[in-house]
From TrEMBL, chain A:
Alphabetical list of PANTHER family matching this protein: AUTOPHAGY PROTEIN 5 (PTHR13040)
UniProt keyword list: Autophagy, Isopeptide bond, Membrane, Transport, Ubl conjugation
Keyword Disulfide bond in annotation: no
Species of the source: Zasmidium cellare
Protein name: Autophagy protein 5
Topology versus the membrane: Peripheral membrane protein
Domain Autophagy protein ATG5 UblA: from-to ranges: 15-138
Family the entry assigns: Belongs to the ATG5 family.
Keyword Membrane: yes
Subcellular location: Preautophagosomal structure membrane
Automatic annotation (TrEMBL), chain B:
Regions crossing the membrane: 177-198
A Pfam entry, by short name: Autophagy_act_C
InterPro entries per the UniProt record, alphabetical: Atg3/Atg10 (IPR007135)
Family to which this protein belongs: Belongs to the ATG10 family.
Protein name, UniProt field: Ubiquitin-like-conjugating enzyme ATG10
Record organism: Zasmidium cellare (Wine cellar mold)
Transmembrane helix found in the keyword field: yes
Compositionally biased intervals (Acidic residues): 58-70
Keyword Membrane: yes
Region Disordered, annotated ranges: 52-71
Coiled coil: none
């Protein structure tokens, strides 16, 4: 049975409340003082985009800049040597690159414990790299890895809307629902993301998720595999792989199995990535991580889509290989 | 009309094979099937006139762009700006999607959308391109396989855009790709070269004979 809407809504609120502590320092090559400038500290929502922080970061770091002429949208952020893509939400970037252990009710190496103790959860999150230490740069923009922002924020908006349209297409087989949103609704959708306002977001998102006369076909999902999991001798692409390169896997997964059983995360992963997820019920080599938590394989895809999607409508699932 | 990833792969293979057998390869520099895991895509590389890389200095140059192949060959390949067109299957939309990126641009950065048109679309065709909204907007995005920033023609209206050309027929994958190139590709300057179009049209009947083309 599908989860009751009260649980869906409660889980969605929890996810929207998720946040991460960030410590952002100015790259020494952009800093006019020899000793490092003070870091900018902030507790920031996992579902939000780092690009929205730039005006605040710029005000903070402007006095320390070697070149005071640069604008806020020339900046870019990195974690170690990985430039952080503006169009990935913070929580996804953290799950992909921070190396943090996901919160896990059933951590690997332990037998199939039915009820995990609170101690377990704490132990598995104890080493979290908090605050997450990022660097802001104003020079040497990595054009071959990042899309540069613009003063009006159009790039961010376009990319977001494209993703929302794609999610709609995956759910319904057409982008009609998004296209038929009123101007006010589509403006409000983007505003709710910028302001991190769940109530405003729901007022539009509920229209997207429940279009009249349409039946949900597929759950929008992107699966991110780290370089180590996607080494591939058959690759014939001439470009050299950049630090932080991910293999992104997408597939249309029906909501029901041929047996009419509901599609679970386990059955979906087993279909899409059988070599990494050879079992539908037991995690052997890797864990699927969403919003900092290892997902249970028994979770139904339709429930996940309603409760745990990012603001663009996608489940962005990071695959973390067992250490 | 949609196309599965397997059908698209078949179509792209035919395009690549037919291209390799052409004698007159003037329009495109290279056509290559590339692969990563189970994803296969076709990369078409086209040299751009160096002057179109900097459209604000020599705006009239791009009018002769199409006939300028001889001039292009005289410059060294490494120095010429290149347009790289990748045809990739979209699992969400179940249609081919065109990604365009650039190499050897003087500035090292992706062009603005205005510069992109300046470089890719001959000025004679540019007015009709103002209606490109009909096909889907062109925006910068992340290439789904290489991860590098690339322009793409948004695929949400590709099916509708193909309908007039298909006229309700079911076509073979290679013909689908050719029609798609003529519709979506043409909007960003990726036109099917005439010798290739001729070959694709004849391909079904006289695929073995290359004599006629070599006479041209």
């Amino acid at each position: 049975m599908s989860a009751p809407s009260s649980s869906i809504s409660a889980l969605q609120s929890k996810i929207w409340n998720g946040s991460l502590a960030l410590e952002i320092r100015l790259a020494s090559s952009d800093c006019r003082t020899y000793d490092k400038s003070e870091p900018y500290l902030i507790q920031y929502p996992r579902l939000s985009y780092l690009a929205f922080l730039l005006p605040r970061l710029h005000t903070f770091f402007a006095p320390s800049l070697i070149n005071p002429e640069v604008s806020s949208y020339d900046a870019w952020l990195s974690f170690e040597d990985v430039p952080l893509k503006w169009h990935y939400p913070l929580g996804l970037l953290y799950d992909l690159f921070s190396g943090a252990e996901p919160a896990d009710l059933d951590p690997p190496g332990q037998s199939e414990s039915v009820v995990a103790s609170q101690a377990n959860v704490e132990a598995s999150t104890g080493e979290a790299p908090i605050p997450w230490k990022l660097t802001i740069h104003y020079t040497d923009f990595p054009y071959d890895q990042l899309i540069q922002l613009d003063p009006e924020g159009l790039t961010m908006r376009d990319t977001f809307i494209n993703s929302v349209k794609e999610a709609d297409y995956v759910r319904n087989g057409s982008a009609r629902t998004v296209m038929s949103l009123s101007k006010e609704d589509s403006d409000n959708l983007w505003l709710s993301v910028q302001n991190h306002d769940l109530l405003q977001f729901r007022s539009v998102n509920n229209k997207l998720l429940n279009p009249p006369g349409m039946e949900l076909r597929h759950v929008p999902t992107k699966i991110y595999l780290p370089g180590s999991a996607s080494e591939d001798d058959t690759s014939t692409i001439p470009e050299e792989t950049k630090p932080g390169h991910m293999r992104v896997v997408q597939s249309l997964i029906p909501l029901q199995l041929p047996s009419r059983q509901p599609q679970t995360l386990g059955t979906a992963l087993n279909t899409i990535l059988p070599s990494i997820f050879p079992s539908r019920r037991i995690l052997l080599y890797a864990r699927p991580v969403l919003h900092g938590a290892a997902l249970p394989l028994a979770a139904r895809m339709d429930d996940l889509g309603k409760a745990a999607a990012y603001t663009d409508g996608f489940l962005h699932i990071a695959i973390v290989m067992h250490g | 009309m949609s196309i599965s990833s397997q059908e698209l792969k078949e179509g792209l293979e035919v395009i690549e094979q037919e291209w390799q057998q052409l004698d007159d390869k003037a329009d495109w520099d290279a056509v290559k099937l590339l692969q990563q895991h189970d994803a296969t895509f076709l990369r078409i590389t086209r040299s751009l006139n160096a002057s179109t890389d900097n459209p604000y200095e020599q705006q009239d140059e791009d009018e002769i762009e199409e006939d300028d192949d001889e001039a292009l060959r005289r410059t060294k390949p490494a120095e010429r700006p290149l347009a790289i067109y990748d045809i990739v299957h979209s699992p969400s939309y179940q249609v081919p999607v065109l990604y365009v990126s650039f190499k050897n641009r003087a500035s090292g950065r992706p062009p603005s959308i205005e510069e992109l048109y300046q470089m890719l679309v001959p000025s004679t065709q540019r007015t009709s391109m103002q209606t490109v909204g009909q096909l889907g907007a062109i925006t910068l995005t992340e290439h789904p396989i290489t991860g590098i920033p690339a322009y793409f023609v948004h695929p949400c209206r590709t099916r509708e855009a193909l309908e007039p050309a298909l006229e309700g027929r079911t076509v073979k994958p290679a013909e689908y790709v050719a029609l798609w190139l003529g519709t979506i590709g043409a909007s960003v300057g990726l036109n099917v070269p005439l010798p290739l179009a001729t070959r694709l049209n004849r391909g079904r009947r006289i695929r073995k004979s290359t004599l006629e083309e070599s006479e041209q």
